[in-house]
Amino acid sequence: MQLIVLTTLTMIAFAANSILNRMAVDGAGMAPMAFAAVRLVSGAAVLVLLTRAPLVFKGRRRGIGVLALLAYAVGFSLAYGALDAGLGALILFGMVQITMFAAAVAAKEQMPVQRWVGGLLAFGGLVWLLSPGEGAVPLWPAASMAIAGVAWGFYSLAGKSEPDAVAGTAANFLLAAPLGVLAWAVIGGGLTPMGTVLAVISGAVTSGMGYALWYRLVPQLGASRAAVAQLTVPVIAAGMGALLLAEVPSLRLILSGALVLGGVALSLSSGWARAGRS
């Protein structure tokens, strides 16, 4: 029961990042780059306090992690200037799963037919969601969120070999934070009082503490159940967006979202079933 409760709280924290970003950028008038920078700095501060292991700042894994985290944070914030919370979360987590699927193919992992079918369904759902026509998604914000999703996929892959996940995440945040501040200084954009408060909450609580809790839960859940759990984030984000931001999902989003989530669940279920038999 405790595992279920903690997993649910973590998924709510992930979804809350979308809501907080939307509220700060679209509602409170904060610049997207300012939000990203404050979020990274706040997350770094909290993670340093949470970790007890020594921090490692060198190595290929660290370089990939830092650049991926920076690209994710920037793309995420830029996209939410125009995308609804649920729509953005769907693109984000859809691209995360597709990126990790592609990495598995590149690594020549064994791929059962069920996983291929699920992956193609998920990709088809995203193509439909992003294609022109009635109810089409704004191109550049969608592309920005897609880049964020690819970056988070690489970040997740790089983190698999971390000897201490919290310490590794703290090191990534510490190195990405000054780069985020530099990018903000170059691109520009102002802070707002409410936007800053929301960015600090996103960085310190729903990102820093949320990621730390998640990394502790993943070994207990296993890879397949952890991946399936993340499929709830777009649904939670859409519900929170409807309640808090009055965002009404379109029929196109609902149908394409069902295709994406169903495809990913189908793809993951084959590995989950085999793990249960082993």
Automatic annotation (TrEMBL):
It holds the Pfam family EamA. Residues 144-268 form the EamA domain. The chain crosses the membrane at residues 31-51, 63-83, 89-106, 113-131, 137-158, 165-187, 193-214, 226-245, 251-273. GO terms for cellular component: membrane. Keywords: Membrane, Transmembrane, Transmembrane helix. InterPro entries: EamA_dom (IPR000620), EmrE-like (IPR037185). The keyword Cell membrane does not apply. This is Putative membrane protein. It comes from Donghicola eburneus. The lineage of its organism: Bacteria, Pseudomonadati, Pseudomonadota, Alphaproteobacteria, Rhodobacterales.
